[in-house]
Amino acid sequence: MVDMKKKLGLFSIVLLGINAIIGSGIFLLPNKAMALMGTASLAVFIFNMFVVMSIGLCFAEAATYFNKSGGPYVYAKEAYGDFIGFEVGFIKWAICIIAWATMAVAFATALGQIVPAAQDPMIQNIVVVCILVGLGIVNIIGVNVSKILNNVVTVSKLVPMIIFISLGIFFIKPSNYSPVFIETTGNFGKTSLLLFYAFTGFENIAVAAEDMENPQKDLPKATVIVMIIVSLFYFFIQFVSIGILGPELAHIPAPIQTAMGMILGPFGSSLVAAGTLVSIGGINIANSFVTPRCGVALADDGLLPSFIGKRSKRDTPTYAILISVGIAIPVALSGSFATLAAISVVSRFAQYIPTCLSVLVFRKRNQPTEFDFKIPFGPVIPIFAITVSFWMLSQATLEQLLWGLAGLLIAVPFYFIMKKNRQDQIKI
């Protein structure tokens, strides 16, 4: 029997969610938003807060019906059947592996900015492999080690942001908030899609449900808490960045680091640089924990070979971890990451839209549980989330849509191969 002390409680789930969302982007994002929308970028953050919260609430309600791993895959499968579920689950595992590989490279790159010797390509590759293999070993050792490491790193990455916001408000110049609108204010849709990417990752919270003490009770609470915390951090970081740097923010590649340098001198810049490194490291830890469990959920339902879902005596999915690491290493070393953002943005909606729709299905079909959580205002919020999701997809370029569609198409032959294997086994 698995020791419940080694499972994730509410506090650890919240930190896992924050860690899975907040990465290097928030340290670099303010300048891009300022360049596209000026001070009006604050309105885009507020809009995205409502969008993400509405989608997050759908995930929170869907989580009350199930206590097994898989997240979006489980919701899609239970609502619409094996094929749609497999499409969602397969693309999620693939994207998680690619995203983890990319974050490993991002960590090595960020390390090179602090330690010049680490800029050497050979050393960067060694760092990348060490990160992927090292975190794979940590996850094989057990959930408790991953939990402790995740909690420490998450708290550490939040410290520089809390200091920046707390001190930065005293250095704000009100004149920097005008004019509110600039010539490129018409880029609202483009900016929304860009900033939305910074919020992605919350869907990973539910993937590791079986490693939580009480997922049906804690997941809804954790999802709401995580989205509120992340949304407030993002808004106030943008608000303070504009207040300190003004129009120049649009042209500064590392805005928070620059602003902290103005507040605390070289120490402030170094603090943010270290925070960026810890932040990217945190994303790696969260990805290393969530990624293998995407494959486990598919294997448990017979949609992938059963050995992938097999757990060790420590209750960790050893084979899924080894496969994830084994694929992530060549992806990371290939250096072909130019289209990652395009694939990721579009494919994420392939998880969000089915989950929001599934809530409406579960309400009519499933019996309420003792941890029943219902989104207020009936179907209004799920319908709003679905509508805005399609609108955001319409803001993507044709290339982004094609890459996202390609990911879904790749999953089709795998599904039918596994389906045929299952049918052959039944005949035997």
Automatic annotation (TrEMBL):
Q: Which InterPro entries match?
A: AA/rel_permease1, APC_superfamily
Q: What is a single cellular component term in the Gene Ontology annotation? A: plasma membrane
Q: Which GO terms describe its molecular function?
A: transmembrane transporter activity
Report the transmembrane regions from the record: 33-60, 93-116, 122-141, 148-172, 192-210, 222-246, 258-283, 319-339, 345-363, 375-394, 400-418
Annotated keywords = Cell membrane, Membrane, Transmembrane, Transmembrane helix
Q: Where in the cell is it found?
A: Cell membrane
Tell me how this protein sits in the membrane: Multi-pass membrane protein
Protein name per the record: Amino acid permease
* Species annotation: Erysipelothrix rhusiopathiae ATCC 19414
Organismal lineage: Bacteria, Bacillati, Bacillota, Erysipelotrichia, Erysipelotrichales
